[in-house]
Amino acid sequence: MPDVTVTTLQELKQKGEKITMLTAYDATFARAACQAGVEVLLVGDSLGMVVQGQDSTLPVTIQEMAYHTGCVKRGNQGALIVTDLSFMSYATLEQTLVNSALVMQAGAHMVKLEGGASLAPAVQRLAENGVPVCMHMGLTPQSVNVLGGYKVQGRGDAQARQLRADAIALEQAGAALLLLECVPSELAAEISQAVRIPVIGIGAGAGTDGQVLVVHDMLGLSLTGRTPKFVKNFMAGQTSIQAAFEAYVTAVKDGSFPAAEHGFSA
Ligand code: KIV
Ligand code: NA
């Protein structure tokens, strides 16, 4: 068991202390993030883009997710490791269970799935089998071809209502954590207050219970030259990656990141 558990995350939410999360794909960066005090390491399928150079997360396989989870596990020092289930690896309940077992046995402490209330039965079955679940909602990059691009989600009354209802249904199904990507700041804050489980945001404003960024983004590294509006370069003014990680943890904890300019309006 890691030092940081689902219970720790619940306690941080109750205390009103912000949760810090960063992506990690290898042992060295995992270790550095832990030493800076990052509580949750996300083995994100963003590795398809930042590690593999793909143009979306769709080509990533569950075997690759398990491989990088093992790399992160070997560098980990007490953080909670969350691993993404890759594109189409949880299309059926059977696949969801088999593929969650793969990444849990590789070293994950929690799995992350993209979607809404239709995944409630999967969340329940995983929890019953000892697998805590983080549900990724809002902008879900595995559905980029359905969404028609990487766009802000939850704008307008109908979409906002749907997102709120999904969050509550997934909490009731036993989800341990929610992650909101690119949703209006006000809506993300509202959802964070409406559920008891912690809510992590990326491009979701300062009102969530914690923050996550892709590690390459927050170090100012970019393959494409395009940086999303919600990213801050924490390497600026620092002389080491370690110091940049520490600056991120400090900024999330003291509420100075994200600023209003990193969020989206309704
Ligand atoms: O894969 C990833 O890095 C993610 C974060 C952007 C939340 O899912
Ligand atoms: Na992801």
TrEMBL record:
Binds 1 Mg(2+) ion per subunit. The keyword Oxidoreductase does not apply. It catalyses: (6R)-5,10-methylene-5,6,7,8-tetrahydrofolate + 3-methyl-2-oxobutanoate + H2O = 2-dehydropantoate + (6S)-5,6,7,8-tetrahydrofolate. It is an enzyme of class 2 (transferase). One of its GO terms (molecular function) is 3-methyl-2-oxobutanoate hydroxymethyltransferase activity. It comes from the Bacteria. The active site is at E181. Mg(2+) binds at D45, D84, E114. Keywords: Cytoplasm, Magnesium, Metal-binding, Pantothenate biosynthesis, Transferase. 3-methyl-2-oxobutanoate binds at D45, S46, D84, K112. Belongs to the PanB family. Catalyzes the reversible reaction in which hydroxymethyl group from 5,10-methylenetetrahydrofolate is transferred onto alpha-ketoisovalerate to form ketopantoate. This is 3-methyl-2-oxobutanoate hydroxymethyltransferase.
